[in-house]
Amino acid sequence: MKLLNYISLILIVLSTSIASAQISFEAKVSKKKLGINERLRVDFEMNQDGDNFNPPDFQNFTVIGGPNQAVSTSWVNGKRSYKKTYSYFLSPKQRGTFSIKQASIEIDGDVYKTSPITIVVTAAVNNPNDPNNPETIAADNIHLVAEVSNTNPYLNEAITVVYKLYVSPDTGVSNWREKDNPRYNDFWSQNIDIKGLKVQNGTYKGEDYRFVVLRKTVLYPQKTGKLEIEPLSLDVTIEVPTNRRDIFGGRLMTQGHKTISAGSRTINVKELPLNGKPADFTGAVGDFEFNVITTKTELNASESLQARVEVKGNGNLKLFELPKLTLPSSLEVYEPEHTENVSTNLNGMQGGISDSYTIVPQFKGKYPIPSISFSYFDLKTESYKRISSGEIVINVLEGPTNTTSSDNNIASVNNGKQPVVVNNQQFAFIKTNTNLTAIKPNYFFKSTGFWTGLLLPLLAIPLALIIRKKKQERDADVVGNKIRKADKLAKKYLSEAKKALGKKEAFYVALEKALHNYLKAKLNIETSDLAKDKIENLLTSRQVNNIIVLEFIQILKNCELARYTPITNVEMQQDYDKAASTISAIDKQFK
Questions:
Q1: CB-side exposure of 467: number of CA atoms within 13 Å?
Q2: How far is 406 from 421, CA to CA, in rounded Å?
Q3: Does residue 265 share a domain with residue 167?
Q4: What is the pLDDT of residues 124-159, one digit of tens each?
Q5: Are residues 118 and 164 located together in one domain of the fold?
Q6: Is 416 within the bounds of a domain?
Q7: Which pTM does this prediction carry?
Q8: Is 344 domain-assigned?
Q9: Residue 176: which of 120, 256, 267 has the closest Cα?
Q10: Distance from C-alpha of 276 to C-alpha of 426, rounded to nearest angstrom
Q11: Per residue in 221-242, pLDDT tens?
Q12: ω before 67 within 30° of 0 (cis)?
């Protein structure tokens, strides 16, 4: 019995020693959800000293501080405790869901690793409260403001958003870069180029400031109700005064980084009034002129003329359809050619759009082009207006006579089928005088064609066997067939983007559409309605490699950001090649 008690006591002591000697190495973060204008602290803690510490690469984050090393040792009731910490301060590069990957360290000859931590980066928060933010001293000296021209517009009425960076006289800014661009959901948007930044003097909340205009954007709301304009966020390199002075008494400056946001803005979009709304209204809003113009009103049959339907003025010119011409059936009409000559400034779209019809009359006579009308909503009077073109008569002077036309020789618009015109000379092509000659007999038997037709099938048999064998080998090559199928899909969906190489906006719109169409075909869903994290989860659930999924999501983000940033042809070609290789890789791994 005593021996059993001694054995139990020894086991308890050993287990206690083992537990006390257990090594731990873990990662801790200050928060798992933060705004893009906030800071994140990551601590890697261990309870025993180690060597060869290897931090993660902190992809999608910028390291603004660290590594800072701290060591603490304490004795409690004769028991020693030890803690060593490596600390990093991070700034997120963009919004999304990211992972702090594993760190590793070697302790007593063994390698220990931390567990990955998922971090969610949201849009900028209005009042970031991070005690580890080293730029707090400049919080009241730099402001990014979004000035909206009208927060209560009508549907399809132009509004402008001007982003201004205000800096106090005692603070300097040496550089900045955009961290988070607003996507302008439910708006048609157009950025206005700014050639050279000009520093101006102004006031902010009654105090003297200097400011520069960073961006001007014209928006046309496409939905009614409350719409949100997402915030623009900048990473600014600042210079602020310190309490130290140089040998001449001048105050020394210190440099740091600060993330600032313009904040989100809410736009309350009014619906166009239903009272007096024309039946043919197609959504035109603004101040317009409407005309129907023909290049000529007199010509001969089989000659052509141009009829142009045009709208000029100021408004949402690219966002509505022009009325269609209705023409007599005796006039041959080709599909219209659409032309846009539109420029965008702070007053919205200005210029004109037109549809040009090519018309070829077939018979002699007079043909009326009936009057057509164009209706739009006038913002000045807040009422609907209609403009009519007036009737135009086309006089065909010479040509065959249409026997179905009326006695007064005026053709009318034919809503039914076009009548068949009988020509009295319909058998004129038959010749009555012939010049026949005898044909020498040409026997097929034993001719060159005879022997060729006899031997060719025999020679084709071994060729067919070779082709069949090659086809069987190709069909058996499962990996090769999958690669060829993937490359074919990539070329299919990226063909439109390839045609638009060199045209930045057209290229990235086509590239983004190609990526969504590819996912739509593979997943049988409307991916344009899904967020990127859902697309990422869907691809991951189909056993697609995480690296390939992240590359695909990054290309989608590049498509959204490219229209707001300068892009070279080389970068466009790189994005195209990367998209093609990523689609091909996904198709190989897709299950």
A1: 5
A2: 14
A3: yes
A4: 876 555 443 445 555 667 889 999 999 999 999 999
A5: no
A6: no
A7: 0.49
A8: yes
A9: 256
A10: 56
A11: 999 999 998 888 888 887 766 6
A12: yes
